[in-house]
Each structure stands twice: as structure tokens, then as C-alpha cells.
Amino acid sequence: MKRFIEEFKAFVLRGNVMDMAVGVIIGGAFTGIVTSLTDNFIQPVLSLVGGARYSWGDVNVFISNFASTVVNFLIMAFILFCMLKATNKLISLGKKPEAPKAPTTKVCPYCLSEIPIGATKCAHCASELPSEEPAQTANA
Ligand SMILES: [Zn+2]
């Protein structure tokens, strides 16, 4: 059962699953906006052309219906955005930060060129470099 949950977590956190879910939900919500626009604007206008009569009360209902659909869409988009941010954070928490690599080069104090860290003589300006590893000098 624990393995099952781990697999499910990996599936959800893969990222493109969330993208797909967002696409489906936003698509559905957008369909709602289009439908609302048709029902509350285009259809009444066409009915007016066809001879229908609307009171100002009807117009107010149309406007408030459409406005509430838009507000619904915005709220949903905002919640989805927060969920995506949280998921992305979870994904980045799951990845271990890469350990900084040990330096393999140093900068020559005379010509400021990058040279191997163990060098005792600069390859660019041929300066003798002060040894940073006294243990090796003592052995030599
Ligand atoms: Zn140098």
C-alpha cells in the first residue's frame, strides 16, 4: 500500500498531470463563459431583433448572470494557480539540491587567469605561485 501511494505521488507530481488537469478545468470554465455570453447577451439581442421586449430588470439579470460567470472563472483560475504553485513547490522539495562541486581551479594572483588548483607555476604568466598546501612542500 505504501508503494502504491509512492507511485501515485510520483504520478501526480510529474507536473504534466497537473498541466493537463488545469487545461481541462480551465477549458470547462471557459466554455461556461462562452455559454453565458451567448445566453445573456447574444440571444437576448437576437430576440430583440425578432421582436421580443425586455425590461431593465431583465437586462440587469443578464448582466449579473454574465458577471457572476466571469467572477467564477477568475476565482477558479486563481485557486488553480495557487494549487499549481504548491505542486511546483512540492516537486522542487522532492529534488535534492546538487552539492556544490569542489573547486578544481584557482585564480593566479599575478595575471588573474584561471589555472589548475594544484599548480605551483602559472601557465599564463609563468609566475611562481605561493603554495597553498604547506604539507606537500614539507614532503618535497
Ligand atoms: Zn599568472
List the helices and strands and how they pair.
Elements: H1 2-12, H2 16-49, H3 56-94, E1 105-107, E2 114-116, H4 134-139
Antiparallel strand pairs: 1-2
Helix pairs in contact: 2-3
Zinc ion binds next to loops.
Name the shape in a single word.
Answer: elongated
Order of helices and strands: HHHEEH
Q: Structurally, how many domains make up the residues?
A: 2
Strand order of the largest sheet: 1-2
First-to-last CA distance: 62 Å
Q: Give the total of beta strands.
A: 2
Describe this entry's structure for a reader.
- There is one protein chain.
- This protein has helices spanning 2-12, 16-49, 56-94, 134-139; strands at 105-107, 114-116.
- The chain is mainly α and 140 residues long.
- The chain folds into 2 domains: 2-94; 101-135, no CATH class.
- Strands 1-2 form a two-stranded antiparallel ribbon.
- It is elongated and about 100 Å long.
- Bound molecules: zinc ion.
- Zinc ion (ZN) binds at residues 108, 110-111, 113, 122, 124-125, 127.
List the defining traits of the structure above.
2 strands, elongated, 2 domains, single chain, two-stranded antiparallel sheet, 140 residues, 64% helix, mainly alpha, 4 helices, binds zinc ion
